[in-house]
Amino acid sequence: MAYRIFSIFILTFILSFSSIAQNAVFDLRDSKLNENVISLAGNWQIEFGKLLSAKQMANIDSAIYVGVPHSWSNIDQKGIDFPSTGFATYYTKVIPDQNVNQLAINGNVISTNYKIIVNDIVLGGVGKVGKSKEEAEPNYQTKIYPLPKADTLEIIIQVSNYHYRKGGMTMAPKISSYINLIEEKGQNIVLAFFLIGSIFFMGLYHLGANLFRTRSKMNTYFILVCLFTILRTLSVNEYILIEYLHFPWWLSTRVELISFYLLLAFTVRFIYYLFPEYIPNKLSSITYVVGIVASVITVFSPIYYSSYLVPIMQTITVIVSFGILYFLLKACCGKNKEILIALIGFLILFAATMVEILIHHSQLVGETVFALGVFFYLFSHVIILANRQNDTYVKNLELSEELKSYNSLLEKTVNERTEELNTRNFDLIQKNEELKRINDEKNGLTHVLAHDLKSPLNNNNGLINLIKMDDSLNPQVENYISKLQKSNQQGLKLIEDLLQLYKIESQPDLEIEEINIDYFFEEVIHLHEDNARLKKVNLICDISTEAKKFKTDVKKLHRIMNNLVSNAIKFTHHNKSIFIKVSNKNSDVKIEIEDQGIGIREEEKDKLFQKFQKMSNKPTAGESSTGLGLSIVKTLVEQLSGTITFKSTYGKGTTFILSLPNL
Fold first, then answer.
1. pLDDT tens digits for range 586-615
2. Contact by Cβ (8 Å): 510, 640
3. Cα(first)–Cα(last) distance of the chain, in Å?
C-alpha cells in the first residue's frame, strides 16, 4: 500500500508538469495509450471573447498560443490583457495511437465551466458555458468522454468564467484508453477514501480520548485538523461533494476554501499545544486569527471576491511554514526524538503544500499530493502521541508499584496506630467512667452541703429578725445587723440557685403543657412590677403573635423569664424602661428582653453564660448576684430545644433573644 501511494504521488507530480505539444498539435502515435495516461499539457491555441468551431480556429491568421494548464488572466492578445472574467475557445489537434480500441478524454476541471467538441461532435461539458454571468453556470467535475475513431482529433474546449478570480484551462485534459481513465479515476477515489477513512479514525480516537479522559486543547485541535482535512479531500479529490453528494458548486467551493484556511489555523494551533516550549504563542495566535477571519469573509462574501484571498493565504502559509520549520529545527538540537518525528512529518506536509502551489500557479485546486502530505503529517503526530501514551503507561506502572509499596507500608502503620488508639481509647473510657463517678459524687456532695447549709441560714435569718425587734438597739448595731442579714440572704440565694441548677441538670425531662401566651406574659409582668417600681423602671410588653396557644414546659419557661426579667431590672438604671417583645417566627415563638442598663464589656461577652462568672459591671442598686442565673437560663433553653443569643453595647444596654419551638 505504501509503495502504491508513493507511486501515485510521483506519477501525479510528473503528469502535472508534462508538456509534449508545440503549436497546438499533440503527436501521440508512439505513446502507448493502452498503458499510459497522457496529459495534454502544452501550447493550445486560444481566442478570447469568442466561441468558435475547429474550422474557424484553424482559419485564424494571427493565432495566439498559451500554455496549458494556465489561467487566461493577464495574457496579452494583440496588445490587450485578458480579464479574469469572460469566455474563450481553446483549440488543439491530437494525432492518436491507432492501436487503441476506445480512446477517451478526461476533461479535468476547467474554471469555471466548459463544453468539449471533438471533430465537430459535442461530447459534453460541465456547467453551462455562457457569454454573460446570467447565462453561465459554474461547476467542477471530472468527466470522461469516449472519443470518435479518427486519424486526427480536432479538440475544441469552450470555456467561460464569471464566478472565480481566474478563468481558463487551469488543469490539462488527459487522454488514454477509456478503461485506463476509468481505472485512474477509480484509483483516485479509492485513495481519497483510504485517506479519509484513516484520518477519520485518527480523529475519532482523539475524540474518544477527549470525551472519556482528560480534555486537552491539543486533542481538540487535532480533531479539527482531521475534520477539515476530510472536508477538503471530499471537495477537491475528484470533486466527491459535487459528483456523489450533489453539493452545489458554490457550497463545494466554499468548503474547499474555508477548509484550507482553517487547516492552516488549526494545524499551527495543534503544533503549538504539542510543543508549547518551542513554538511561540504569538505565531500560532496570529495565524489562528488570520485563518478565522479569512473563513468568515469567505462565508459572507461572493466567491469571486473571496477567491482573491487564495494567493494571500498561500503566501501566509509559506511564511508560517518556514517559521515552524525554523523553530522545529532549532528544537532538534536538543536531540528530542518527538521533535525529530514532528519535523519529518511537517517537512512532508510542507513539501506537499509547496508542490500544490507550484503546480497550480497560485490556484487553490486540490490534488492527491496535498491529501497524502496531510495524511503523513497527521500520522507522524499519531506516532508522537502514541509514544507519549506509552511513556505515560510505563510511568503509571511504576507509580502503581510505588503506590502498592506505600499502601502496604501505610496499612502496616495504620494497624499499629489503630492498636495504639484502641489501647488509648480503652484508657479514656475507664478514665471517663471514673470522672463521671467523681462528678456524680461531687454533685451529690454539693446537693447535701447546700441542703444542710440552708437550714442553719434560715435559723440565722429568724434570729436576726428577732434581734431587730428590740427597740433598744443603737444605730451602729442596727447597721451591723442589716449587713449580717443581707449577707445571710445572699448565702440563701446562692444555695437556692445551686439546688435549682442541680435539679435542672439531673431532671432534663419535660412536662409539656399548653399555655395562653397573653395570659402567661401578663403573669410575668405582674410578678416583677413591684421590684421594677422600686427603681422606677417601666416594664413594657408587646405581644404580636398570630397564634395565642403555645406548648412548652411551663415551669422551665417561668424560670427562664423570671431570671431574665429580674436580671434586666437588676442592671437597669432608675427611670429607664425594659421592653419585652413576643412574636411568631413560623411555629416558633421569639422573645426579646431589652434593657437600658449598663451593658456588657466586649472582653466579657464570651463568659456570659458560664457558671459562677461575675462580671465587672455591678447591679445599679447594689443588688446581689450569684453568677448562676444566666447559666441556668441557657441550660433550660437548650432543654426546651431552643436557642438564646444576645447583643449588647456597653453603656447603653443588653438585649436577650430567645427562639423556642412549639413542642
1. 778 889 999 988 888 888 887 777 766 666
2. yes
3. 86
